[in-house]
Amino acid sequence: MGDAVAVAPRLLVASASAAGSAEPLHNDDRVLIDGHARLYALVDARGPTYGGWHRPTGVESGWRALRRRWLTGDEDAPVERLRAALTAANRAMFDPAFFNPRYARQDPWHPTASMTILGVHDERAALAQIGSSRAYLVREGDTRRVLADHTLWTEQEARGASRDPAFALVVSRVLGFAEHVELDITTLELRVGDRLALCSDGLWFPLEPTLPALLREPATPEGLAARLLEAARAAAAIDHHSALVVDVIAP
Fold it and tell me: What is the domain-level CATH number for residue 103?
């Protein structure tokens, strides 16, 4: 995929989000963009999980805690800074008063959410994954998923088992569900020409076979985000569908 060097990136960012057909009057997805902090997150704040349903209470408090910790952290490596920021967000969202360990399930209003988040610090970046959304990297004509999502669908795939569509959007990890957050996180060396696309499960699931090619289409981030939602609607997406597109351009 080439030997291009990492750069202090300029980013073009756009997003689009729409309610799914199963709940057309209410969209629980959140696209959170902070250009000053250089934080870009896609949040899915409602859906089935091992313990019941997670709902969109607490996302705002978690985002505030995350942003504050990211900006004030003294970790030089963006991976460690983002890990600490997500730990702070989880702490802000988790409330043991909402959790009933006797029945090992959540209260219906327990404040939890899936989050896929990109944090950029100087010329380096970190990407973290917890829950059902996905991040894809397009580089030199190749599209790859950066980190595995935490859904039963993907876990079945990893084990070589037959994937059951009934479990496709059931998540095994979410932010705010437990006192200690378990997340996947990686360093990204951004290069000019790179494209990152953060996609909610309501978008990637109905488009999974064709999504890599769609992400490679020549378009502005704004045009691609709109195109992805159009494709999700054409695929009769029942869940809320959202996209956050980041293009890396020359500084």
Answer: 3.60.40.10
**Residue 28: helix, strand or coil by DSSP?**
coil
Q: Which residues pair with 10 in a beta bridge?
A: 249
8 A C-beta contact, residue 142 and residue 215: no
3-state SS class at 102: coil
CA distance 243 to 194: 16
Closest-CA residue to 130 (of 67, 78, 65, 201) = 201
For 126-139, write each residue's pLDDT tens digit: 999 999 999 999 99
- Residues 77 and 187: their CA atoms lie apart, in Å, by 9
Structure tokens at 46: 């409602």
Asked, for residue 117, whether it belongs to a domain, the answer is yes
Residue 133 near residue 198, CB atoms below 8 Å:
yes
Distance CA 72, CA 39 (A): 13
Residue 3 in any domain: the answer is no
- How many distinct structural domains can be found in the chain? 1
Quick one: tokens of 99?
């959790």
pLDDT in tens, 58-72: 578 889 999 999 999
Place of tokens 């696209």: 31
Helices (H), 103-176: 152-158
pTM of the model: 0.86
Look at residue 213 and tell me if it is in a domain.
yes
CB 25 within 8 A of CB 104: no
Asked if 18 contacts 27 with a C-beta cutoff of 8 angstroms, the reply is yes
Asked whether residue 5 is domain-assigned, the answer is no
Cα dist from 49 to 14, 131, 148, 192, whole Å: 29, 9, 17, 38
Q: Print the domain residue range for 81.
A: 10-249
